[in-house]
Amino acid sequence: xxxxxxxxxxxxxxxAALLEATDESAVGEHLRVVDDxxxxxxxxxxxxxxxxxxxxxxxxxxxxxxxxxxTVNDVVLLPGDDAVVAPxxxxxxxxxKPGDLSPGDVLPPEEDDAxxxxxxxxxxxxxxxxxxxxxxxxxxxxxxxxxxxxxLAAQRWNDGEQGPDNPMxxxxxxxxxxxxxxxxxxxxxxxxxxxxxxxxxxxxxxxVALDHGCGAHSGARLSRSAGPQKLPPPVWDTxxxxxx
Length: 244
Fold this sequence. Notes:
Nuclear Transport Factor 2, Chain: A, 3 domains, 9 strands
């Protein structure tokens, strides 16, 4: 589409509008005109302000329908391909990683967190107590893991360093399900995970998959030779007295 003649020739109008918005020292040469549609165009100027290399001034213009009068719509500073810009904003919640929290930090769950459900709706193992009554009088926890939250945790633990798919497990003398240092869990995850209680193990105090393993297994034994190893004669004898 061909740029409207009045808009294409309005270099001076665009520059005058730009100088009203910023200092003259920050405005460089006119770069080009961009057609934005019927009776709309944008004049681009180089930005010479310190710290704004690769940025461009953009002055948006429009032409009147009856008299082709040029009107300034907007003046903005836009980054180019080589411009130095701030990184994309990452919400605070997405920036927090496991281990980042310090004493006093608070990280509440989302209001619609799919990992949590009200205790009365999930039971919270209240087999003999009416759930609605338990919630009303404040028995137990207000929120518990949902099925989705439980599955996410199980998958995360299984895929981590305490899961079965790692070099430590592949070279271990046995798996955690047969280790005397394993503390059993209660609840729906007890058939897949436990807690390591071996103070000498890397996973002490951590949740481990039952098919995980390490060298600190309670059944590990050092292999010993049946007899003393016979050494070869020395290359150079430094024990005996040399005969002259």
